[in-house]
Amino acid sequence: MRRALFPFAALLLASGASPASAGHWRAHYADWWSIHQAIYERENRIAFLEADPETDDGYRAPIISRHRAEIRRLHAALGPAQWQWTTPCCYSRPPIYIGWSSHRRRSR
What we know:
This protein has 108 residues and is an all-alpha fold.
């Protein structure tokens, strides 16, 4: 039985860690990283413009608006987060009620 199971498990592991799937993951991570880096740079530019008291509001307002619009566009390009956890989320369990009000008797 063990002899038959070992090659199957090895084949299963090898197919999951193939170079094609690793290349796809690297490309996805590179895109994700470059988008996050662009968001970080734009947020820093906004922070520097807002922190400089000598910069005129008429000069910095359109720049800040343009950077914020670009940040929203970059966030939309990322798409929603898809977290994969090994354990179910804590919100799947029933709520726990602790306190005096949960044990109070109703008065008539």
